[in-house]
Amino acid sequence: MRRRSTWSALLAVLALVAAACGGGEPAAEGTSSTTAAPDTTTTTAAPTTTPAPEAGPKTIIIGTTDTIAELDSADAYSVRDWELIRNTGEALLKFAPGTTDLVPGIAESYEVSEDGKTYTFKLRPDVKFGDGLPLTAELYVRHINRMLTLEGSGGVGGALGTPFIESVEAPDSSTVVFTLKDAFGFFPQVVTGAPYMPTHPDIFPEDALNEFPDPPIYGVGPWIITDYVLGEQTVLEPNPYYHGEKPKVDRIIIRDFADAQTMALAIQNGEIDVAWRTIAQPDLLDQLESVDGLNVATVPGGSIRYLIINHTLSPTDDANVRKALAYAIDRDDIVDRVSGGTWEPLYSMVPPGFLGASEAFDDVYGSPDLDAARAALEAAGFSESNKLQLTLNYPPEHYGGTVADTMQVLKEQFEATGMIEVSLNAQEWSTYVGAVIGGADFAVSLLGWFFDYPDPSNYLEPFVLNGGLGTNVTDPDTGEPIDDLSAQLVDLLKRAGTTSDQEARAELYQQAQEVYADLVVTIPMWFEAEHVVYWDYISGDVTAGSPESLNIGPAFDFNYALLNTSK
Amino acid sequence: MHPLSIVFLIIGVPAAVLLLYVFVRGSGGLRRYVITRIGLTIPMIFILASLVFLVLRIIPGDPVTSSLGPKGSPELKARLRAELGLEDPLIVQYGRFLGDVVTLDFGRSLVGGQRRIVDEMGERFPATLELVIPGTILALGIGLLFGTYAAAHRRRAPDYALRMYGVVIYSMPIFWLGLLFQLVFAVKLGWFPVAGRIDAVIGTTVERTTNMLLVDTLISGNWAAFRSVLRHLVLPAVTLGLILSGVFLRLTRINVIETLQQDYVTAARARGIRERVVVYRHALKNAMIPVITLIGLQVAILLAGAVLTETVFAWPGMGRYLVERISVRDYTAVQSVITMFALFVALISLFVDILYSLLDPRVRY
């Protein structure tokens, strides 16, 4: 009897496992199957699931390795958070899909005062939150005041609000008036950001942050977050009250992955339809490109890497040393040897495609020019028998697994002058970044930057003004430039920043980049393009910008509403 | 009910039943033994928690700078450090931490939206349990069956092959085995999914109560979801289980071999009892006692293995959470997870020890 019951139990378990393993997964009730891989692949097996016979909600599953930090736009300050907020919300102005061209968002028009300090936005009359609540100027002002006053862990108000805004008012229910602390020519770009997207008063209280609201979470954008499990997935469904063009699919699910390798296998296996941020490893991209039916598209990078040069620490307080380093770097060599060509060499802090972007470092220093590097070193008093002792500092784990290789290549390039002896110093990230931007420890260090708003000011000013994140071209305490050239640069940046005329700004930023290169404030090295991987049956809006990368353009605005699936 | 409370109930109720049994039916010696054992567990957890606290403060880095990077202003960093109590003297931070441990509150995360750690663990711990329990069952099953088989065929081909398997599988890097399974059984053969706990679409239909999806889908009768969870569980659980099966196999083998040399086994054979019955019913039963003890010790290794398995299979459990939080120096999260792991291991060890003492009447107190 006992033996029979044991066997029965064993059989039951086996039956369960067999049931689970066999036949694949049927789609959930009322849904279409989205887990099946197309049968066009050559390296993957047949789909693991069978499509549902009945058409259910059209669903697209997007994979990501980014994590959610918080969902209150008054404090959130990370790429993943902003992407969700941008899809559930909309700002006064926005970027035309796939471009950095400004177009109206929830504001139908705006005016700038003559002194450039007052911006008056006229709201569209048909803007509503996900529950049908109409957006008024008072509600918008309420949100901006939350962002400016509530202090959270993200600190976005202190970074992208209070430095610009003196006050914000609603003279009537459809007009929002910003009074700025100075004339900021790039303020229209600033207001496109997630922190400027209005929050619903019932979800986000006036006097407190709500970092993780219970779903549904809605703003005035095309999507509503209907469910989320941190570390697993986030579900978005269309906002029925959205004033603009409705999303083309019924549901977006964003699945979280711990690493790019697993995400790459998951898209190969058809478990996700799109893989977005971040697959950067060349071998993985090659592997995915070889799969029939999969597209690997490159999104021009907003993420740049550069050397922070400290202008008040020896030996880089000597302009000749700084120039020698700029002459000696061979960016193509770094890109080819370390990234297998997936990065792009960067010759200005402002990446290509942005307003006024130039290639100032290529123009001034060539790439590379070892004779000029040696001449500069000689002028600084160094020779083959009296070599410059240089320490290159870097965080080995923070920028992916290739950083150590990069620094090794850089060491070889500097030492190829025959007059520099390089030692490498790896430091844990939080210790490292504190030391770099503190400006008192490291002469030459590797750092990365990702813009807050897509404008050249955000690629130049942080490295010049208020100590310049450890460059010390201005005094960290007083903000005063340390020499005439620095003063010239500060002046150019201030003039460019306070001008509203975009052509004039472009001209001023080009001049600023020349001075920046002459001064060698930092040494731009490369930018890392992002990659979006998707199956053939997924498409973006072919009439909008950057359709080949699902309309993700230089502004890094991934608009889920433009996605469609033919499956 | 908080999912973490449910986890504690799952572990706590059997432990309580066992304790009740010991105190009602057990001998005075057994009761003393159990009390001593509990008495030793508390300082053990205390010492471990204190060590973790100290080590985290010794290693370089701080959570505020780590999460804000170059963009955080000095004012923001100073405010956050003050708010999070990182400027307090170490002894004050330590006192606060101990208070959190005693109340099982664990405080708030230091990064992101600063969620309550119990909420984060409530989402993650059930996922880890869901992985570790089948992993253990598989490891035990393979270990006991093949270990006994190897012992019964001592110094013959199956014995050599299984001994070799035990060594090879145990020394195999778990992430490598996981990746291999993903490539073969998911990408090439298409039998199982690569990652996650449940299909993304089906996952939207699941009502989460315990956060152990097998249980939740079973309770709600959501069979499509149940099947999906089971399919997603196979590769990570098999990866974890196989790695540990080597230890159980070798331990079972050696114990069965010893048992088979006992007089009562010889007597059983002399009475004409079939060899299979002798081996699997008489010898294995007695050889299992040290194996049961080993389970308690292996739980710690299982949890460590879960860290890597969860990363490879995008399994949103405590191991992946720990790795994520170590990288951003989230002190409270890291020390809470390790304390929780310690508590879990200690409870299982206690449970196993008591069980051992009940199973083996030869144990003296």
Which helices and strands, and how do they pair?
The complex is a heterodimer of chains A (567) and B (365).
Chain A: H1 2-21, E1 59-64, H2 79-88, E2 93-95, E3 102-104, E4 107-112, E5 118-123, H3 137-149, H4 156-160, E6 165-172, E7 175-180, H5 187-190, E8 217-218, E9 223-229, E10 233-238, E11 251-256, H6 260-268, E12 274-275, H7 282-289, E13 294-309, H8 319-328, H9 331-339, E14 343-345, H10 360-365, H11 370-379, E15 388-394, H12 403-415, E16 420-426, H13 429-438, E17 444-450, H14 457-460, H15 484-498, H16 502-519, E18 522-535, E19 538-539, E20 564-565
Parallel strand pairs in A: 1-11, 1-12, 15-16, 15-17
Antiparallel strand pairs in A: 2-3, 4-5, 5-7, 6-7, 8-9, 9-10, 10-11, 12-18, 13-17, 13-18, 14-18, 19-20
Chain B: H1 3-25, H2 28-58, H3 63-68, H4 74-83, H5 90-102, H6 117-152, H7 157-171, H8 174-188, H9 200-203, H10 213-220, H11 223-260, H12 263-270, H13 275-312, H14 318-327, H15 331-359
Mean pLDDT of chain A: 89
Distance, first to last CA of chain B: 40 Å
Q: What about the largest sheet of chain B?
A: none
Helix content of chain B: over 70%
Q: In DSSP terms, counting alpha (H) and pi (I) runs of 4 or more, how many helices of chain A?
A: 16
Report the count of strand segments of chain B.
0
Q: Overall mean pLDDT score of chain B?
A: 87
Coarse structural class of chain A: alpha+beta
What is the structural class of chain B?
A: mainly alpha
Multimeric state of these chains? heterodimer
Low-confidence stretches of chain B: none
